[in-house]
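Dig into what follows:
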Amino acid sequence: MNCHYCDREAAFAAETEGVKVGLCETHFRERLQELAEADGLEALKEQVDVDRAE
């Protein structure tokens, strides 16, 4: 799967309601920064267990 924004290989993929989108590491970090600045990161943390150690 390629990145939604460029032709690079996707490092991450998200799926919602059957729609799957890939992001390369660079675009993933950019989107994550945008979410952090828009207070959306807190909502994302509630949905994903980011404190879980593997």
Observations:
- The two ends are 25 Å apart (CA to CA).
